[in-house]
Amino acid sequence: xxxxxxxxxxxxxxxxxxxxxxxxxxxxxxxxxxxxxxxxxxxxxxxxxxxxxxxxxxxxxxxxxxxxxxxxxxxxxxxxxxxxxxxxxxxxxxxxxxxxxxx
Length: 103
Hints:
Largest sheet: 2 strands, antiparallel
CATH superfamily: Winged helix-like DNA-binding domain superfamily/Winged helix DNA-binding domain
Number of domains: 1
Distance between the termini: 53 Å
Order of helices and strands: EEHHHEE
CATH topology: Arc Repressor Mutant, subunit A
């Protein structure tokens, strides 16, 4: 029996860095899950919820909270890195870039 996928909502969780990680992934949507996650993180960066110089939730926190694979999370972060929104610092995490300083 084929069932329709429901969006997953994690509204009351926090990553290791203390940020809330409310993420909604709609598996029935046209956009891939990694694109949905990248769009949600981008919106939080642009709103100031994730301020410049601060770390976004870790890959492991996002895996736990979204149910997405590590590869999907990395792909979403890669999209943000290519857009110049974040910088990956090995052994530290992924940090929001100050877009005003780079212009």
